[in-house]
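Hi F.,

I've been meaning to write this up properly since the lab meeting, where we talked about keeping a consistent format for the predictions we share between groups. The idea is simple: the sequence comes first, exactly as it goes in, then the structure tokens exactly as they come out, then a line or two of notes. No screenshots and no reformatting. I'm using this chain as the first example so we have something concrete to point to.
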Amino acid sequence: MAGKKTSASDLKRSLGLRHVFVLSTGGTISAGLFFLPSFAVDKAGPSAVLAYLVAGLLAIPAMLSVSELSTAMPRAGGLYYFLARALGPAGGTLSGVSTWVSLVMKDAFALVGMSAYLNLIVDLPAKPTAICLIAFFTGLNIIGSKTSASIQMGMVAFLLAIMGWYMVTGLPETSSGLGEFEPFFSSGSGGFIAAIGLVFVSYGGLTKVASIAEEVEDPSRNIPLGVILSLIVSTVVYTVGVLVAVAVVPANDLITDPAPLHTAAEMFMPAVGAGFVIAAALAAFASAANAGILAAARYPMAMSRDGLMSPKFMEMTKFGTPLWGIILTGAGMAFIVVAFGAGAIAKLASAFVLVKLGLVNLAVIILRSAKISSYAPGFRTPLYPFTQIIGIVISIYLIFKLGTFPLLLVCGATVATLLWYHFFGTKKVTQSSGAIHQIFERLGQAADTSVDREISAAMQSHGLRSEDDYAGLIARASVISVPSDGDIDIAATRASQVLGNRMGIDAEQVNECFLETGSLWIQPSETHPTATPVAFFDNAEDDHLVIVRSENGIVIPSEWGGRNERVNALFFLAGTSAKPGRALRLAGELAAYLHDGESAVFSEAAHEAEVKQALLPGLEIGQYPLLPETTMGVLIGRTLGELNLESDLRIEAIRRDGRVLRANPETELMADDQLMITGPIGELPGSEELANKI
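Output, unedited:
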């Protein structure tokens, strides 16, 4: 099928499950394993091992929430985009800045650790070396996400192989070092809890995949599966890796060691093995920095889309990457490396990670409570809302346990961001509300339906599932032409009459439902812009489409969710309330073929079959009458199940007495039926050739 044209701010969907896993894992296993254990043991003693395990378990609610949000709204900007649509632009601004800062700090911490391990090989100045590394990975990400993700895959594979060797070799050694675990809670419960908060930064990379959701193929499957696999692998590697280090390295040495895992490896691995640990650490630090820039750079882009940052951040390179977002992220990482020490960076990064994870859980609660019809995630968090409530409580509690300085900085950053939004963002922001305003409607305030339309549009990135019958939807569609410069109300009235007859619903009710739902987005096109109104009906058993054309255009006023744009065609899609996500995915697939404005769709002279063919470029489609006097007359009276059609040939629908019937095996063919057929059937000059193929 012909792909859609990408605009200046579009991202390519080129990342699969393996990319999701390696980007998430590569962004997670780094300084938290090779550098942070010294700080954690200093704070909690041997119980630091348990702190890593508990932190991984406590991250589960947020990871599930991230997966749900990513499959509902697969758009660049990740957590910012989700939270802005849940909390409104002010909350989105806060979340965007907080998340970007946490990513920058986490990966700056990784580069500090990388300098420590490089120092084991050659004496290099730490901060200048880190700046050079930032420049390298910034350039790598400018080349393209798939390129950098492919390199990431190699680095993560090497990392996991060496850590597997380390853990298998080191675990037997822990039996002789049991004395190092006594007393286990050497710093008491307070030190243990503080260590949990400190090491939380180790799992902050798991959310990075959300920011590239727009570039992930089949996000409903690949994002939750990739994140869950990454969380399991990361938790095991962290817990076992730190367990071995604590068991074999004396505590007094461990708390001052900038390369604790290498020191541990030297005690039970051959020299070459210890050398490989250094290499694995460098690969981990490099992959974290790479994934950090890849993810963080999408946040300025997303905020720019909403008018919160300069339009420059929407500019894309020829490789399809956000140039200025990548540059800003690299500059931010360089500043953190120069301005702060390692311990301070770790605490601050953990604090901002906890803030963003708490907000993510809150976003799921708000979006579900708003009961937005277009919110149809491919993955839903189990045990809602208890999972989210637990996640929020965990975040708040651990932030307070990190200490005064991180708490004050979080509060200060919050105030500064809200002031920035007040004085700058309110004048330029394009996003008008969030899902929280839908909840306010129940309290007597008017609701803004713009978030519903935005989430609907985001479904375009989902791709179809096996049960989504796009070809059948197009084949069953009705095509109507209205006079030039016709009023949208006329178009809606005529479409509602057709849809009402199909669904057995009063036409006026159908019209009102389209007007009230607000799920409409304008499809950009250089020559023929279109609009796709979507509405959902309780009585509908199937999805139905009516195409209304006007050669000179129809104006979409504000009451219909437009801004007085003129469109050449309207695609009225009536979906069933039982499966709103399916209708939105179908609308998204339809939108993919409308980017270039297929001429057959908009030409008044085009036949209905030509219109449908333009929307199914990968198939041939035809409409053929079943006339008794033709060779096809032998089919009259037979059911579709009796025809034994070729596997690549499908009767999608049957038009009978002005009605369109979905084809099923029990349908009996009648005289004067018009068959709507799709498949690679080649040129068909006459019905006789069709009869020969059946």
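Notes:
The longest helix spans residues 89-118.
The domain at 17-306+338-424 is CATH 1.20.1740.10 (Amino acid/polyamine transporter I).

If this format works for you, I'll send the rest the same way.

G.
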